[in-house]
Model the fold of this input.
Amino acid sequence: MTEDNFKMSNKQEEEVSKFFAPENEKRKVETPDGEIIEINPLQDYFSDARPKVHHPNTSKVVEKFLNWARAESLWVLGFGTGCGSIEIPPLLTPRFDAFRFGVQMRPTPRQSNVIIISGYLAVKTLKRVIRSYEQMQNPKYVLALGSCTINGGMYFDSYNTINRLDYYIPVDVYVAGCMPRPEALLSGFGKLKELIKAGKGEKANEYVEKFDWYKANQKKIIQDWNMPDYNW
Amino acid sequence: MNIDFNKLFFTFLGLMIVLNWGLLMSALMRKIGARVAKRYGIPWFQPWVDLVKNYAIRSQITHGVMFYLGPVFRLSGGVGLFLFMPMVFGSDLWTNFSFKGDLILILYFQFFGMLGMALGAGEGGQPHSFIGISRGLSQFTTIEVPMTLAVIAIAVQYQTLSISDIVAAQQGGIMNWTVFTNPFATAAAMLSVLGAFGHSPFNLVKAPNEIPIGPPTEYHGTYLGVLRTNAAILHVVEAVLFMNLFFGGATTWIELIVKSFLIYFWSVFVGMVFPRFRIEQSVAWFLKIPLILGIIAIILL
Done:
């Protein structure tokens, strides 16, 4: 993977280092046996290798079965942004009971397949969304909840929220409304299942293919980009 | 070297039965939990779907060699426990590879997976894993104390370290079961089994909503699939261990399934009634009542 690593230009590095905490700065350290080595703490915390496309299984029958399993077992990352996050907890209550449809909540991005962007997305939160999204494993799906993710909604002219989510991460399903009720969210899950079963849930690969375009968009809006370009 | 392929085949078949029963049992328990909360709950086949989904995740990352080996150790702990456990009493084919001193080995294997997992999850570098591991190891150490006392008590009572012999000694009527002949040892063991199964109030290792899910926080895809496979096997085999030691073993698979369900349900039932302990409360709890019961069982011999 090393040959694919991103290299920042010196000017970029200088820009970025302005936002580092002092302990994260690049520095030279003397080892116990007198050797002087250069350490870059940021490299130790994050991986910055370029993502790879993971192709579907070549056998159509196998892939269809696996897609069925993926659709029937949607593990949702417990990540709330904006007002829509209040619509997610009712899904687990007796009234809506999303467990019936194989929707389960996971607390860690490593194990989740679905991230719900639940409403307006502040620029500060976008950064966390990108990191969480990139830590999820392929295949992964994005469900955008509320009008704010489509065109900004009532925050269309706000100074610190983004207007269109699909400039920054690829979106599988939009659920329109302000706010959509949990029923709408459930029907969104239904739509997502249909897409996955039809073999159209390949947005994680699309993100990789159009990686440079997404990164350019993300960097345009996130001014203090103090993280590597891709972190698994 | 003489390889008994017939034996190997039936052992493998037994492992498959145990795995599928473990998955079905976990689904049933979650269904029961859902009904307690007045929900409909997951479909009964959800654990299989989750397993297939996890094995089908395409991309995977690693944090090092031990990160790979953690789930492998955990699985070998569970499968090892199965291999040396006589499942169905009186059957040559379903006693697996149990031998004269298997009780000692099984006590060891219970800890084996835990230690492997601690090394693997430790390399993941996620702080929640460390918290989960330190809690898990300290809690399991205290669980082992009353459990070992109970096991020693019945080993002395039956004058054997072979699980098959212990089961044989309990045959011939319900009043021959250890639960009636040695109630204190049974009580100590059944209280410590609550911790071994890791349901509330002793679920502070994984502690959902608190330290997201503890040791497996960094595990995903196939790693998680292996861990879940192991959990299914381990839950059944642990229940079978207690069934063999205290509840007269099983002479048919049906009896095994009913008894292991009830033993596992005991921990789920307690979990639905009581909220989670903190680690210092849990450790102190195991060193009070279960330990005292275990000591009484030893003294009464």
Observations:
- The mean pLDDT of chain B is 85.
- The radius of gyration of chain B is 19 Å.
